[in-house]
Design goal:
The structure is a single chain. The chain is mainly beta and about 325 residues long. The chain has four domains: about 70 residues, TSP-1 type 1 repeat; about 50 residues, Single Sheet (TSP-1 type 1 repeat); about 50 residues, TSP-1 type 1 repeat (Single Sheet); about 70 residues, no CATH class. Helix content is about 5%, strand content about 35%. The strands form six sheets. The protein has a three-stranded antiparallel sheet with strand order 3-4-5, with no helix packed on it. A three-stranded antiparallel sheet has the order 6-7-8, with no helix packed on it. A three-stranded antiparallel sheet has the order 9-10-11, with no helix packed on it. The chain is rod-shaped. Pfam families: TSP_1. It is found in: Secreted.
């Protein structure tokens, strides 16, 4: 019976002291033992008491185990563009299982990180103006009397140039600055005004090209000479002769001389009649330039006796004929 109890006690101790994993861990602990010391009158007695000391104890323990690495987490990129850097993290914990009863903690780090590039796209570069470049001055607007001249300054959007969608420079690439120049007083030479008509004579003819006299005057006031300027040279009066009424004068028509046409005699002997026709034309001169035509008729007729001296022939009498050339009757 005693053997059975002893065996049961050993099994119980094995279950309590040693876990199912079979891992025990030692640790420092306070232990007590029974000790004796002198006590009583004159120390002749002997008293017992518990004495503590540090010793080694054993208990069930478990070493820690790492969990799986978590998914990646990232730190903020050092730049928003133009290639910066960030850390890529993974974490794990020593909870798979957690160390227990003085078991060993997990070996290694609970965090691992990798440095990697980020935001590698080019940064927008906004344009900026270069310094002004000064050009030479322009020509003065006047040679005297106070004018202006202009200086043109230029700059370019190249410090730097806008790139990768950056903004262009704001404002103008040039500016104008005006300066006074040639402020000395101008010498003003006199100048003639326009000619103005003073008087105008009548035309010498009403038609057929006459002439007309006109008088003009001008003054040295355009401009008036100033500051030692020269006076106008030349005459201030002018007389001109111009043609006038150059239209042709009307020419009224006039009759030419009469021309006569003689008709045939109504008889060859013994007093006949013939018609004389007179004609004239309106050509001496012909009417022109709205002149009036000739008045009267251009034709007239008249009768004259003819062959009145030519006797008509009688039987037994000779026959005569008129000779125009000789203007006599001849025996015919």
């Amino acid at each position: 019976m005693a053997n059975v109890l002893l065996l049961s006690l050993v099994v119980l101790l094995a279950v309590v002291v040693f876990p199912a994993s079979g891992l025990t861990c030692s640790y420092s602990c306070t232990k007590y033992s029974w000790a004796y010391k002198s006590c009583g009158t004159w120390g002749w007695g002997r008293c017992g008491y518990h004495k503590s000391y540090t010793g080694t104890c054993y208990r069930t323990c478990r070493n820690g185990g790492w969990t799986a690495w978590t998914t990646y987490s990232y730190s903020t990129c050092t730049k928003t563009c133009g290639t910066g850097y960030r850390n890529r993290y993974q974490r794990r914990s020593c909870t798979n299982p957690s160390p227990y009863g003085g078991g060993k903690s997990c070996y290694g780090g609970s965090t691992q990180s990798v440095r990697e590039s980020c935001n590698t796209h080019s940064c927008k570069v906004n344009g900026a103006w270069s310094s002004w470049s000064y050009s030479s001055y322009g020509t003065c607007s006047v040679t005297c009397g106070g004018g202006t001249r202009t200086r043109t300054d230029r700059r370019t959007c190249s410090n730097p140039y806008p790139r990768y969608g950056g903004r262009a420079c704001y404002g103008n690439s040039y500016k104008y600055t005006k300066y006074s120049c040639n402020t000395k007083v101008c010498i003003i030479h006199g100048g003639w005004s326009s000619w103005s008509s003073v008087s105008s004579g009548a035309c010498s003819r009403s038609c057929g090209s006459g002439y007309q006299t006109r008088k003009y005057r001008r003054t040295c006031t355009n401009p008036v000479p100033k500051n030692g300027g020269r006076v106008c040279s030349g005459d201030n009066a002018l007389t001109t002769v111009t043609a006038c009424n150059t239209q042709n004068c009307p020419i009224n028509g006039g009759w030419s001389c009469w021309t006569t046409t003689t008709g045939s005699c109504s008889k060859t002997c013994g007093r006949g009649v013939r018609v004389l026709t007179d004609k004239r034309t309106c050509t001496n001169p012909a009417p022109q330039y709205k002149g009036t035509a000739c008045s009267g008729s251009s034709t007239r007729t008249r009768n004259e006796i003819c062959n009145n001296l030519v006797p008509c022939g009688v039987k037994g009498y000779p026959r005569y004929r008129w000779s125009r050339a000789r203007r006599v009757y001849i025996l015919g």
